[in-house]
């Protein structure tokens, strides 16, 4: 009996345990999604990377690939269904769908494509020079002694109406006396009944007057000489133009010969600026273009001039070509030999203009990502035109009003590659179209890999 009790009691316990387990299993079959689902629903929060969604971790941290902060993985039914539907539609059209969090993390920004004009700007360095058409030399037209200097310093202002010096010359004195004698003889012979004698008096006066003119005596001075009836001991010397003395070559009391230079005069009311243009920018420089001249010494003062000449010489040392700019110089603010900055602006192209960061250059074609609807981006193949600084002209592929991604476009393209988007498959760039009558090669089948299910 004792042996039977030892066997019966454990056997009874096993039977009761089996009955209880079977009942619990049958109850679970009739009431699914209660305890187990609640436990799963209340399980640990998962975290993923907005740029690499296949990175999934069970605690916050940083992405092992890009180092970005992980965000919470949302598996809600409503949001998940809507996002999945958008992704499915986008992938069918070669588009990429991005959530608000992904856009923020990827720093995606868009602007509206607009018509505009690309302006090329050429910056050059120039040196202020004298206007060669406004320079003159004061020379001695007759040999003599400089008895008086009215201008004795470089930089002094001179005028055409004021003499710069006075010269004494024996030859000039003798010529003046000859002229006065010729005038006196003409007056005596003009009443002669013989016409040849009266005409001879006029010829003598004309000959003596011509010699005075060759000595630099002005018509006004000759008239004063004839009126006074006696020669002038000293002859005033005038400058051919008004300006500034840039060089003084004579001292008071000095004897000078015919043709010797006394002063160099320059008119600084207008100056030249010779700018150095790099050889790759020379084709854009033309006569008549407006140039903005800035001087550092004048604290940003701006003067405007125009290109009057492009020199036909190339400097092999600096690889530049000189261009001449003519401009007014009120107040003589621009000094000769002063360094200045020159800016030439010119319109080159009109059309749709976008930032250069919006264009992805694959080497064989250019792409722009256009936001078709909030969060949905579509790739467009475009043809680019002129590019100036950070702007580029778009000839075809987009239209005015399209919202184009100007930052984060490379990350959008990377997202498209991860999802296998067909619109931006770089491996097919430059492929030739199929020839009529030829059967296209059947692409090799690849297993679909769901990156969202990968955990690290």
UniProtKB/TrEMBL annotation:
Pfam families: 3HB_CusB, Beta-barrel_RND_2, BSH_CusB, CzcB_C, HMBD
Taxonomic placement: Bacteria, Pseudomonadati, Thermodesulfobacteriota, Desulfuromonadia, Geobacterales
Key words, A-Z: Membrane, Transmembrane, Transmembrane helix, Transport
Protein name: Efflux RND transporter periplasmic adaptor subunit
Listed Basic and acidic residues bias regions: 425-435, 444-456
Region (Disordered): 414-456
Transmembrane segments: 7-27
Record flagged with keyword Aminoacyl-tRNA synthetase: no
Keyword Chaperone: no
Start and end residues of each CusB-like barrel-sandwich hybrid domain: 136-266
Family under the similarity heading: Belongs to the membrane fusion protein (MFP) (TC 8.A.1) family.
Ranges where the Heavy metal binding domain occurs: 47-73
The CzcB-like C-terminal circularly permuted SH3-like domain, residue ranges: 352-412
Domain CusB-like beta-barrel: 270-343
Domain called CusB-like three alpha-helical bundle: residue spans: 202-231
